[in-house]
């Protein structure tokens, strides 16, 4: 029953709401600040597994349509992030100014801002897709720091497609080739998340950029801690 759904359990979400629930969660996790706790990576890899007939049937659910997943997931991820960017541009830092909130913890914001400053706006938007929590908070942060909506859209699209398609197809691949993979979904998700954060880890290992250098290698000026794009 819908009232008994566990929002943190991908199997429960898929069994209750199916494709619509998956797309709604992806939109909320990337577009609404309150959605940062939702299981984005876990849900995508589980959806990929359950797009195979054998895994879906074993769990007493209808197989998820892979084409709809591959089209709908990136579209919802793109739309959600654009909403987040809009909110950040419209409301600015006061959107995050909730010191007594258990949900809007300042360390979440600081982590997102660290990625934004470390990698530069363009690269940060793409890489943040592969970092849970960061991908939720970085979108409004980009709007707050005045990254233009059109420039954000380009890199938002690149990151959304890479993230969603990689995770879904990994789940599909394993669901097709590993019998009973649905019984080991947590280890599968752990591997999927590890693979998804490799781009971020790689950039961190490469070390900090030279002072005044942006994500695309060009020197940038950041007066008063704000990016103008």
Key features of this structure:
229 residues, 64% helix, elongated, transmembrane
Overview of the structural elements:
The chain has about 230 residues and is mainly alpha-helical. It has nine helices and no strands. Helix 6 (about 120-130) runs parallel beside helix 8. The longest helix has 29 residues, at about 150-175. It is elongated, with a radius of gyration of 18 Å.
Query: What is the string of SSEs from the N terminus onward?
Result: HHHHHHHHH
Helicity range: 55-70%
For the sheet with most strands, the description reads: none
Number of domains: 1
The 3D shape can be described as elongated
Distinct helical segment count: 9
Topology:
Layout: H1 10-31, H2 40-49, H3 53-58, H4 66-91, H5 106-119, H6 121-128, H7 134-144, H8 149-177, H9 185-205
Helix pairs in contact: 1-2, 1-4, 2-8, 2-9, 4-7, 4-8, 5-6, 5-7, 6-7, 6-8, 8-9
Q: What's the short version?
A:
It is built from nine helices and no strands. The chain is mainly α and 229 residues long. It has one domain.
